[in-house]
Specification:
Length: 252
């Protein structure tokens, strides 16, 4: 096997592993890409209309950097006077800033619960509208909690996550990584949907061994999800950003 200090399994979408790779290399590690999904960008008229409607709201929430990138390809993103754009996490806030929304905000606690606790979200009242720029299945807790308070959600699904079949050759490489007794293996968890898709594809011969790796969860919700799947050695990262996931691994 490679002469590395540790291996890090990444479940990010196809083509989305580079940030983790750079962060892992700086600490002497190597990322193993195990993508169970890819990002698809629809550009039909319905998607454009949904986005236009969402962007008319006073508060607009983007649920991921992918949502920002997809939306910015459909139309220029610019906060109007009195309008506020939010990212669920710091990575999304920075993505908004890169496309020109300098005033974008993100919660200190970088997850759905942290966003909902922001003063601007707490100030929303019955009858108000919130734009939610996301993907099918994404961040359902935000919409659910706000709708319970009578807030109208104007949703724009600007990209889709399509399933990817992990190849037998990739599973064989994972088996070799798990066989490497000289380097510990970690699993980075930043998406519950990706995690469920990965677990569903895991060969039975690897299932028990996989649950012996140390899992690094980007939120309490994801840590709880990992426990339901039988993982016990779980570390909590402060966010899904690569540097925060690697900091939780704590290998110098």
């Amino acid at each position: 096997m490679d002469d590395v200090d540790f291996h890090l399994i990444s479940l990010r979408p196809v083509g989305g592993h580079e940030g983790l790779r750079r962060a892992a290399r700086r600490r002497g590690g190597k990322v193993m890409a195990m993508s169970p999904r890819r990002i698809a960008l629809p550009s039909n008229g319905q998607t454009r209309r949904q986005l236009l409607d969402a962007l008319t709201c006073t508060c607009v929430v983007f649920t991921s950097p992918d949502a920002v990138r997809a939306a910015s390809k459909l139309r220029a993103l610019k906060a109007k006077r009195g309008q506020q754009f939010f990212g669920v996490g710091e990575g999304t806030r920075r993505a908004l800033q890169r496309v020109g929304v300098a005033s974008a905000k993100a919660p200190d606690r970088m997850d759905s619960e942290g966003l909902l606790a922001m003063p601007e979200m707490l100030a929303l009242k019955r009858g108000d509208a919130l734009g939610l720029v996301t993907a099918p299945g994404g961040r359902g807790e935000i919409a659910r909690q706000l709708q319970m308070r009578g807030v109208r959600i104007v949703r724009a699904d600007v990209y889709a996550r399509e399933p990817v079949t992990i190849t037998n050759a990739t599973w064989q490489r994972l088996r070799q990584v798990l066989d490497d007794a000289t380097s510990p293996t970690f699993l980075a968890l930043s998406s519950g949907e990706a995690f469920d898709a990965f677990i569903a594809q895991t060969p039975s011969a690897l299932s028990k061994r996989l649950r012996n790796v140390t899992l690094v969860a980007a939120s309490d919700r994801l840590a709880a999800l990992a426990r339901t799947h039988g993982f016990r050695d779980i570390r909590r990262a402060t966010s899904a950003r690569p540097q925060d996931l690697l900091a939780a691994i704590n290998i110098a």
